[in-house]
Design goal:
Layout lengths: L6 H5 L9 E8 L2 E3 L2 E5 L2 E9 L4 E5 L4 E5 L6 E7 L3 E6 L12 E7 L5
Parallel strand pairs: 1-4, 3-9
Antiparallel strand pairs: 1-2, 4-7, 5-6, 8-9
Length: 115
Amino acid sequence: MLHQQDPVAASAPPQVQEQPRTIEVVAKRFTFEPSRIEVTEGERIRLVMTSADGVHGLEIKKFKVNKKIPRGGEAVTIEFVANAAGQFPILCSEYCGSDHDDMKGMLVVVAKPVR
């Protein structure tokens, strides 16, 4: 006896990406660890942010990301799709001390390979 494949299941498009890629980032005076994050264009990203000391913020203007990271190690989750290739500054958006303006990182979004 032959089993026929369900025509609805056969024609359903595959899921592009089921779960976002989780990257843990620690903010502390006056750096992000890691300070460079590399992802692929179109990838869904989940940043799990914690502070090792005081209040910080994480801002990536291109992707309209701006979240406050409280003191005390409480995790803050930020999700977005990296839908443009390029290099985008990661900034601390909460004043955190004398070297606040030097607290920077970089989000590198690598262009998706052309198929």
